[in-house]
Amino acid sequence: MKRREPANRLCAALLFFLCACKPFAASVSDDTVGQRIAKIEGARNRTAQGLDALPLEQVMHRLHVPGMSIAVINNFGIEWARAYGVADVKSERLVKVDTRFQAASISKAVTAMAALRMVQQGEMSLDSDVNTLLKSWKVPKSEFTREQPVTPRSLFSHTSGAADGFGFPGYPPNAKLPSVVQILEGRPPANTGPVLFARPPYRAYQYSGGGIMIMQLLMTDQLGEPFDAIMQRLVVSPLGMSNSSFEQPPSEKDIDKLAYAHDEDGKRMEAPWHIFPEQAAAGLWTTASDLARFVIEIQRAVRGPAGEVLTQATAREMVAPVGVGPNSVGLRLMNKGDGWYFYHGGNNTGFDALVVGHLRKGYGVVIMTNAQGSGYKLIEEVQARVAATYHWDGFEQ
């Protein structure tokens, strides 16, 4: 989008100021790491009502969440990571820090980072017409795309005009899986409808899992590799995410490392997990620590001069608002008081997760659970405890 010259000068001045300012970590007093962990795991206020009065493991029990993994980021690094509860209530197998959970929609943000690496390598542009890059399927031409084509930037920010609203339910193990084109067209054996466009790009924000599937197809069309291999090469391996994979279904060699899906009452679901051919939108299996490495990559690259995967310029594209809705390229942005944060939640059948990072100060948290619905209630409580303990900007109350 073009802006008038005065706005350009203002943005340039603001960018210079931000670059000139030295980043700093959260003010967390003189507590040791062990004392901070104890504050988060203990009762926040023993005289209070509700969850504040309970130690963290009792909160898990109260909310019927079998297992959880946490990684806390401070000063641009993983300060600590811990695992709680069980990966499977039937076998009582314990969650470990290397136990893998489904990241669900957080997969979209990791996919966006891979696409931005392709941009860095000159393999596409964020503002290209996707139909010039797609080979095996095209966005239907219509009155909505006459003046402004659908672009990777609009798809990753959910402003492309796609109106599907997907959230994908996934498929039970051993079910026949659809191709990406069948998913986009809503043809059997796909269990969702077609991806349709209802307005011109950048006119309004509407969440679109289907839009991210267009990007999955575009990336495989361009690079000629399976999607999980693309993600492994462009992001997973370079960031040292050694307990992560977009492979769907998961490899047999990794089965013992996986958490099982549970409902909001903490009961194991009939299927241990669902399979997601919608890999870009929902297919990542990972750990809290590996996702923390993803968060830290964004923070370090934005700070500059570069991260392991992203240049500073590309990282700033990833966290720049597109001007419509709350999203940037693959992330959601949030302002709390003086603090600016990027984040993404995830909800698959039997799993809830969250990543959040401060845009400038190098702190954040990743929380993963193997319970649907009740898992997010626990995530909200854990995030509040971490934010209070580490004195996050805007989370004073």
Structure description:
The chain is α+β, with helices and mostly antiparallel strands. About 30% of the residues lie in helices and about 15% in strands. The strands form two sheets. The protein has a seven-stranded antiparallel beta sheet, with helices on both faces. The chain has a two-stranded antiparallel sheet with strand order 4-5. A hairpin with a 2-residue loop joins strand 6 and strand 7. The radius of gyration is 21 Å and the shape is globular.
Condensed summary:
The chain has helices at residues 5-20, 33-41, 56-63, 106-120, 152-156, 180-185, 209-223, 227-236, 279-282, 288-303, 312-318, 374-389; strands spanning 67-74, 77-88, 93-94, 101-102, 285-286, 332-336, 339-348, 351-358, 364-369.
